[in-house]
Amino acid sequence: MKTNLNPTDTAQPRYRWLADILRETIDRGMLTDNQALPPERELAERYEVSRDTVRKALRFMEERGIIYSDHGRGTFVSPSIVRGTTRFIDSFSQDTGNRGGVPGQRILSIETVGASMAISTLLNVEAGAPLVRVRRVRTIDDAPVGLHDAHFVLPRGAKISRSQIERAGSLYKLLMSEFGFEPAEAVENLCAGAADAEDAQLLDIAAGDPLLVCERITLSDRRQPIEYCLMKYVSTYRYRTRIAKHSGGMS
Known about the structure:
It is built from nine helices and eight strands. Strands 3-4-5-8-7-6 form a six-stranded antiparallel sheet. Strands 1-2 form a two-stranded antiparallel ribbon. The radius of gyration is 20 Å and the shape is globular. It has helices at 14-27, 40-47, 51-63, 80-83, 92-98, 117-123, 162-168, 171-179, 197-203; strands at residues 67-70, 74-77, 103-114, 130-140, 143-152, 183-194, 210-220, 225-234. Pfam families: GntR, UTRA.
């Protein structure tokens, strides 16, 4: 049975479209934990895409812990406990929804700024190069839980507005559709911190209260740095991740 969905109807690459469809199939319980996925040929015929597109989609999903491969046996759905703890780029809304909460945001500012020496080094641009900076308060069930201060490398002269972000519902979705922004992977550093006076006011906590601080550099599909984001979360926010054994073994 073929799908009536057309991958050309979306601006996403076809493999990302297919990965989203397969992920939705899993989330709806049509494929269960450790169940085998259909063979590549069957997926290609069902969704009217090439075998290469299927392979890229499966590789994309496996890198994110949604599925796993067993050599000689096939590809299977990862257990829900693994899928639920896998980090996705800009996954705040999805993680919050999966936990039964209502994600939200309050945009503090959107501006074009010159890259500082530190950020220019991280993003591999010249000091003073124009970056789009977006500062937001992230909320769960209308309660503030985090601060996101992001700097984006976008085409020169690119501008985005508060209304554009609100209409799109997702900042990444807007950047992908308007500027071809294509996040592929990220590097994160975590540490403990304490709220300063501004943090405390925005997060409705006391100055000096503990915070989880995360610095993230996001890379494009060509592995070029395209975003630096400083994230601060209140102590009640639960940050989940998945750790996998390296193929080289352990000592």
